[in-house]
Amino acid sequence: MTFFDGIAPIQYEGPESTNPLAFRHYNPDEVVMGKRMEDHLRFAVAYWHSFAWEGGDPFGGQTFVRPWHPQDRMETAKAKADAAFDMFDILNVPFFCWHDADVRPEADSFAQSLKNFEEIIDYFEEKMSTRKVKLLWGTANMFSHRRWMAGASTNPDPDVFAYAAATVKSCMDATKRLGGQNYVLWGGREGYETLLNTDLGRELDHMGRFLNMVVEYKHKIGFEGTILVEPKPQEPSKHQYDFDAATCIGFLRKYGLEGEVKLNLEQGHAILAGHSFEHEVAVAAADGMLGSIDMNRNDYQSGWDTDQFPNNVPEVALTYYHILKSGGFSTGGTNFDAKLRRQSLDADDLIAAHVGGMDVCARGLKAAAAMLEDGGLEDALKQRYAGWDTAGAKAMLDSDFDTIFTKVLSGEIDPQPRSGRQEYLENYVNRFV
Ligand code: XUL
Ligand code: CO
């Protein structure tokens, strides 16, 4: 008897299907803009939400009862891995992602925790040798244990910086061993609660040096994946240093990392920062720093990072529009950084959540591709900026204020406002979603 007993591999049945455990839009082999849907979307399951999280919230503890509980021993860590790989097979997902803390029990010493971790990585390696599922990215959980409460690389205590360095080294080694395509750093505690006890400039310098050490180590071991940082504006720290895409890009430039590190952007984090997801994607793409995405949705009323599965096709479509427009993913993909609601207790709830999320993304992708192929938005952009394609406008950029001033003063230049046609464009998008 296994956790997902009785749940058959999910099949594509087409938009008319009423089977709740079938794909109606995600058809891995269907070609969209010259590429298989599976290769566009590059779906990944997040180990932490689906297998490590036990259903707790700030007001109450565990609601889920799983065969791999309690998670404090190697035997149950392996049972958890068995269930996880069963689900990867059922969903036919090409990727998964983990934190060290999701997959192995924490022990009393760093050395023993590492031993546990390596034994699980061996176990993964063996399972992966006979399956198609690959590792999209690995990462270190440097935010849950009390040692990280005042930060990892930004901790006032250098011993914690050292512990963080050793932890990331071990996670990068494991990621490389499993053929991971990226390595992610989300600084859950890299921020502060109050400036009264925080030397902000020093903490940023330490974070910059730490990330340089990550890049140095990547080259030392010959890891070929992409290093990604994940922006988030608050929660858990009141002020997070990696606030949003623009803040991270500035940080990467300041510390000389712009050619080495890209961004892993998350829908819910964009919302917390007061942005739309497509804004974050477009900001990163404009600087060549779009790496990968964490797909989910936040509750628009609560203001919390609720990490729900996506269900809003128009939002998702605009996000994939900007991803496709920038050339699509290379090493990145679509990781479901999303969790069940804590009342969704059953094994098939976990499957249904992913099936729904994958279908919403597939619909979004198809709509995005149709808009790009139709070219309506690109034509409108071209028209709106057409003035900049003239020889006069180009020459202006190479001139100076005095030259421009003379022209404006002579009356030769006389701006005529034109409609931005936003409602036309919104109506256009609605034809596709
Ligand atoms: C937290 C979050 C993390 C990162 C990985 O909000 O998004 O799960 O994706 O540490
Ligand atoms: Co995330």
* The CATH class of the largest domain: Alpha Beta
Number of strands: 12
Report Rg. Answer: 24 Å
Count helical runs.
Answer: 16
- Tell me the quaternary state: single chain
Q: What is this structure's SSE topology?
A:
Elements: E1 31-32, E2 35-36, H1 37-41, E3 43-46, H2 47-52, H3 74-91, E4 95-99, H4 100-103, H5 110-128, E5 134-139, H6 158-177, E6 182-185, E7 191-192, H7 200-221, E8 226-229, E9 239-240, H8 245-254, E10 261-266, H9 267-272, H10 277-286, E11 290-295, H11 313-325, E12 334-336, H12 347-374, H13 376-384, H14 391-397, H15 401-409, H16 422-432
Parallel strand pairs: 3-4, 3-12, 4-5, 5-6, 6-8, 8-10, 10-11, 11-12
Antiparallel strand pairs: 1-2, 7-9
Helix pairs in contact: 3-5, 5-6, 6-7, 10-11, 11-12
The structure holds D-xylulose and cobalt (II) ion.
